[in-house]
Amino acid sequence: MFDMGFLELLIIGVVGLLVLGPERLPKAARTLGLWIGKIKRTVSGMQREISAQLEAEELRQKLDEQQKKLDESVKQVKRDVESIAEPEPGQAADELRRAPGPERPEAGDEAPSEPPEKRLDDALARARLDPPADEPADAADKDSTSR
User: Residue 145 and residue 147: Cα distance in Å, rounded?
Assistant: First the structure.
């Protein structure tokens, strides 16, 4: 704060001794020391609060940046998944024609208009009901009766 040397302090002490006298000078010095201590603690507390607020603001900014990046990533993944789940109309028909198994559409059939989730649920239900091709039908019956 102030650049005070020994000579300045000595002059202040001599003036204080002459003005206050030897009886009141120790009490005044003690009171002055308490005030200076309170001022230092107050200033120190304010500095801590300001630095804490600055750190909190920096953290908020970093969190906002990370949230924006995360939102962008989620949007990109959503677009990618949607583009995979909803292929081009001509492409879907080509893939269905190449698909093996009984679900293969006839030459004049169009692609099913059901949502992919419904088609997946139907396929899973049929797979649970139909026995695997490599097991005989009576083996599947034995498994279901033994349970």
Answer: 5
| Sequence letter at residue 136 | P
Q: Residue 129: what residue type? A: L
**Euclidean distance between CA atoms 13 and 28, whole angstroms:** 11
- Residue 114 is given by DSSP the state S
Using the 8-state DSSP alphabet, how is residue 2 labeled? -
- Which residues contact residue 103 at a Cβ distance below 8 angstroms, ignoring those fewer than 6 apart? 123
SS3 of residue 6 by DSSP: helix
């908020």: which residue's tokens?
A: 60
* Tokens matching residue 100: 């093996």
Question: 62 near 69, Cβ under 8 Å?
Answer: no
One digit per residue, pLDDT tens: the chain, 147 residues?
567 788 998 998 899 889 989 899 999 989 999 999 999 999 999 999 999 999 999 999 999 999 999 999 999 988 888 888 765 555 555 555 555 555 444 444 445 567 777 877 887 787 777 765 555 555 545 555 554
d(CA 85, CA 68): 25
Q: What is the pLDDT of residues 19-51, one digit of tens each?
A: 989 899 999 989 999 999 999 999 999 999 999
Reported pTM: 0.41
